[in-house]
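Next comes this protein:
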Amino acid sequence: MTGLVVGGVTITHPEREVFGDGGPTKGDVAAYYEAVAAWMLPELRDRPLSVVRCPQGSTGQCFFQKHHAESLGPDVKAVTLDEKDGESAQYIYVDDVRGVLELVQMNTLEFHPWGARVDDPDKPDRLIFDLDPAQGVAWKAVVAGAREIRERLSAAGLESFVRSSGGKGLHVVAPFRRGPSWAAVKAFCESLADDLVAESPTRYIAEASKAKREGMIFIDWLRNTRGATSVTGWSLRARPGAPVAMPLRWEEIARLKTGGAFDMKKALKRAKTLKADPWEGIASLKQALP
């Protein structure tokens, strides 16, 4: 089959099934990202970015890529950033749907931005808590955990937003005015997570130990460091069924049954019927990290 042009970008092998036999094709993925771009780009654009590329589809070997290459496409941008070893490297970012689609052409399924922007990558403006439940933990416990984090952030003067992860859990995200260092953001998030664990040690764990996680929810605060990323809203996940990480209103989360409640089809329907962004106002909030 010849290439399929989506949003002005030629997608080769659009017929290739990238989520297993009978699942969405590469062309479907491109059409999906074009359809949801208006909802997705505000959280994604102008941030250093890691992508998950799956040349053989989600059932094959996938890999993260953060470094830029000219082969990714003319609308996939590059920003030079310092790395831990003292060297510098060019990282990926996008500022429009063409950049997104060029990455899809290069077999990208997932998009994971930084909590800072390319114009000042050492001054973060977002924090995130990823609630990752162990097998068998009830969804209502995940919802309760997200609400508890929301309450604690509110007590600290931070309004927060929620999304389903496209996996098992929920993400709680709070924006703030740029200024604090990555170290300050990390310390704040670590302290909040540790306080939750201290008060409810049988419900929560704040260390990345699967051996200790049985029956509990891992409050992952480790994404709040320079170079760490988290999946963006509306991104597909490279998992069976083509689930989507979905921005939600707080009142919606109790009606779900899992963090993977939205697949591509449901996400497309939501994109067409939404009257307002569930995260409306996140970019204009004037709030400061304590």
In short: The CA atoms of residues 166 and 260 lie 4 Å apart.
